[in-house]
Amino acid sequence: MATVKINGMTCGHCVSAVTKALTEITGISNVSVNLEKGEATYNEDSPVAIEKIKGVISGIGFEVG
Length: 65
What we know:
Number of helices: 2
CATH class: Alpha Beta
Shape: globular
Order of helices and strands: EHEEHE
Number of strands: 4
Strand content: 25-35%
């Protein structure tokens, strides 16, 4: 399981948006976003470049920290 810190999440809608965006990346499954910790955990079923994950997260208005 991998973890990525996410800055800028403030509510349940933010959690839903990040969960949806990460779930749509090919190779990622079992996404769990924790608002209080400001992070997302996920499984990589196949290798996914961190740059791709950062790009998807920043594309929906958040920042990987």
